[in-house]
Amino acid sequence: MKTTTKIALASLALAFGTGAAYASTAQENWENNCASCHGEDGKAQTKQGKKLKIRDYTDAAVQAELKDDAMLNAILEGVKEGGKERMKGFKDELSEQEAKDLVAFIRQLKA
Ligand code: HEC
Fold it and tell me: For ligand 1, atom 39, which residue shows the shortest CA distance?
């Protein structure tokens, strides 16, 4: 096979590869980093979620209160209330793109 063809095929595989990974990455990141508090389904019916009184992100009224830029900031920088940390920031674990994908992921949890 000619080298140029090989390169073309490799980049094609790469393009499809990342396309498929996109959807699963946000879901995986959610399950690994967020679900312990927010619940896999976003309803926050977990031990932590109940203790911290986290809102149900599948609720349309809650979704309406959420702002994309505030969500992104919360994911990267964390959530503080009265100087106390309610949620840590994930900027050391997640890239800005991954955090943006999580905002989109949370948006599609809406019931
Ligand atoms: C230690 C528990 C905990 C973990 C883990 C956690 N959160 Fe949170 N999160 C909270 C609490 C508490 C709040 C504030 C209460 C609320 O929004 O109902 C919050 C709020 C939020 C908000 C709303 C911010 C706003 O604009 O009001 C978003 C979005 C969010 N979290 C996303 C995430 C994502 C994405 C992850 C994983 C990368 C994550 N959280 C991990 C506890 C957690």
Answer: 34
pLDDT one-digit tens code per residue, 85-96: 999 999 999 999
Q: Quote the pTM value.
A: 0.84
Query: 70 CB less than 6 Å from ligand 1?
Result: yes
Instruction: List the chain domain ranges.
Output: 23-107
CA dist., res. 106 & res. 76, Å (int): 15
- CATH number for the region 23-107 comes to 1.10.760.10
**Ligand 1 centre distance from Cα of residue 20 (Å):** 26
Contact 107, 63 (CB under 8 A): yes
CA–CA separation, 10 and 24 (whole Å):
21
